[in-house]
């Protein structure tokens, strides 16, 4: 392959595989919120990327505040930023569901257009407040530098951090969805909203909290995102299509599918990138994903039950 | 327990149910009989709040329910088993029953549920969508009973169920009344089932209640003009 020896190919695969792991972390974090909003609730939230951006800006603001008012505690700003990013995105998501989305549950195309418009409005608000150029917070010391895995292989601490957050969030969401009472309410409401209401579940409240939680998760993704890239008003929107593909390929209602799909897409993209250009790698990956979805519209992981 | 006054319901501009008046006593099993398309399901959906009523009112133990959302009606003591069962297919049997606990806020499934429906205990970890029609009907009733209702609404409980299971279901309904001391209102087309369980029957024809008879008065002869018997 291209004049490389077998050992060189192995090293390249390992390097690109590690790079793919950080992309996996970003995809997974982004996709988790959407797996709830689109996968569980069936709402096509085109503003999902903007909730990532919102979380990134919230993190930037927290970092700036710590730098100005408590420089001695700067190393510890990140946990505060993650919680605040979640709360801000959760709050805005809650208001968006209450003010707009709940009126459009039976009108998916209108939801698509309306949330797309909300995304554009949010982008403009970010531009007006923070400007069009990227802003970035300094990473705390413990997130800087790399860990050497072998002579040729390095894993940056920030990539490792993003991956750890992604995995931790996945575990928390899995427990919430499949072990907690809240998850039972969500799964029954999304499966049959009218019947869930008729067995005694306050479905309007479930919808509002579920949508807000999905947005909050995007906020956490945004917070993690600041460690690997600068934040611009359109930072989150760039990942929107990839994120939808991750959720659809995995199987809309399957969390395990979302993890498997984020991993496969990230690895395919990262490994192909070395041998062909980045954009061609993306084209090729997307074509394969589209091919799979055409053959298996329900996604890779689905539950088979008698209806 | 349940009192309905002059209830009218419709879809769009067409009225389907006209001025229904009924009263269900404590511990009574009351049937609403009628052919397909006579408005039985529309009436039951309006009682639980899935359809808005045009006029009239619904009361439970003197408390006004008209205009309340379905989940609030369940909290007030009404529980609903819909036509076609509508269990949550991807949830397990146990999770389906637990959805019924939401109305009371209880954490524990009432003990009598598994003794009324032993098959559900055996299958509690199975997905509801993989159960047979008869088992799904039992699950739908168990889910409704988990809400500890005073009144149980059953919309065509025998639809799609094989005859031998229909007999068992009639027996179970009588047992539920005995164990829980609750009232049951059901809609039905299967005469033998209604004869097995009803204390009293109302006949519905073209959206109106047109006749009333006691359980012992029910026969093929008395119901022939209302049902295809």
Automatic annotation (TrEMBL), chain A:
It is a multi-pass membrane protein. The keyword Cell inner membrane does not apply. It is found in: Cell inner membrane. One of its GO terms (molecular function) is transmembrane transporter activity. The chain crosses the membrane at residues 12-39, 76-96, 108-126, 160-178, 211-232, 244-265, 272-295. The keyword Oxidoreductase does not apply. InterPro entries: ABC_transp_permease (IPR001851), ABC_UrtB_bac (IPR017779), BCAA_transport_permease (IPR052157). This is Urea ABC transporter permease subunit UrtB. It comes from Halovibrio salipaludis. The gene is urtB.
From TrEMBL, chain B:
Residues 2-229 form the ABC transporter domain. One of its GO terms (molecular function) is ATP hydrolysis activity. InterPro entries: AAA+_ATPase, ABC_transporter-like_ATP-bd, ABC_transptr_urea_ATP-bd_UrtE, BCAA_Transport_ATP-bd_LivF, P-loop_NTPase. One of its GO terms (biological process) is L-amino acid transport. It comes from the Bacteria. CDD domains: ABC_TM1139_LivF_branched (cd03224). Keywords: Amino-acid transport, ATP-binding, Nucleotide-binding, Transport. Belongs to the ABC transporter superfamily. This is Urea ABC transporter ATP-binding subunit UrtE. The gene is urtE.
């Amino acid at each position: 392959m291209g004049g490389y020896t077998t050992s060189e190919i192995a090293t390249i695969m390992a390097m690109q595989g590690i790079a793919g792991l950080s992309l996996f972390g970003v995809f997974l974090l982004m996709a988790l919120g959407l797996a709830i909003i689109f996968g569980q609730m069936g709402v096509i939230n085109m503003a999902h990327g903007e909730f990532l951006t919102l979380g990134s800006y919230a993190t930037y603001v927290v970092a700036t505040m710590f730098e100005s008012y408590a420089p001695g505690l700067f190393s510890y700003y990140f946990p505060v930023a993650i919680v605040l990013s979640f709360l801000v995105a959760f709050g805005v998501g809650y208001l968006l569901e209450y003010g707009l989305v709940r009126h459009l549950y039976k009108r998916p195309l209108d939801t698509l257009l309306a949330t797309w418009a909300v995304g554009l409005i949010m982008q403009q608000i970010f531009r007006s407040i923070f400007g069009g150029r990227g802003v970035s917070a300094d990473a705390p010391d413990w997130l800087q530098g790399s860990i050497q895995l072998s002579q040729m292989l390095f894993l940056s601490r920030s990539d490792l951090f993003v991956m750890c957050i992604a995995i931790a969030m996945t575990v928390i969401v899995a427990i919430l969805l499949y072990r907690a009472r809240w998850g039972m309410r969500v799964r029954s409401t999304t499966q049959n909203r009218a019947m869930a209401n008729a067995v005694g579940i306050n479905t309007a409240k479930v919808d509002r909290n579920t949508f807000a939680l999905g947005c909050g998760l995007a906020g956490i993704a945004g917070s993690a995102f600041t460690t690997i890239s600068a934040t611009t008003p359109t930072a989150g929107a760039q990942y929107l299509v990839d994120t939808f593909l991750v959720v659809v390929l995995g199987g809309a209602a399957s969390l395990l599918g979302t993890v498997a799909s984020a991993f496969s897409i990230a690895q395919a993209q990262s490994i192909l990138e070395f041998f062909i250009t980045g954009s061609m790698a993306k084209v090729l990956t997307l074509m394969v994903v589209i091919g799979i979805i055409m053959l298996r519209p329900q996604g890779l992981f689905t539950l088979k039950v008698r209806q | 327990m349940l009192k309905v006054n002059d209830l009218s319901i419709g879809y769009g501009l067409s009225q389907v149910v006209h001025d229904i008046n009924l009263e269900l006593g404590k511990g009574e099993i009351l049937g609403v009989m009628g052919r397909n398309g006579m408005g039985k399901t529309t009436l039951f959906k309006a009682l639980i709040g899935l359809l808005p009523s045009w006029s009239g009112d619904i009361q439970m133990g003197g408390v006004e329910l008209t205009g309340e959302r379905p989940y609030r009606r369940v909290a007030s003591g009404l529980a609903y088993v819909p036509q076609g069962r509508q269990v949550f297919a991807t949830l397990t049997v146990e999770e389906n029953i637990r959805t019924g606990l939401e109305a009371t806020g209880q954490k524990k499934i009432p003990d009598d549920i598994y003794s009324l429906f032993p098959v559900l205990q055996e299958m509690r970890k199975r997905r509801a969508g993989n159960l047979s029609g008869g088992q799904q009907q039992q699950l739908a009733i168990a889910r409704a009973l988990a809400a500890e209702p005073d009144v149980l609404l059953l919309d065509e409980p025998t639809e799609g169920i094989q005859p031998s299971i229909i007999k068992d279901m009639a027996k179970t309904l009588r047992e539920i009344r005995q164990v829980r001391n609750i009232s049951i209102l059901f809609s039905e087309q299967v005469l033998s089932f209604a004869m097995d369980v009803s204390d009293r029957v109302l006949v519905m024809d073209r959206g109106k209640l047109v006749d009333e008879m006691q359980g012992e008065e029910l026969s093929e002869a008395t119901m022939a003009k209302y049902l295809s018997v």
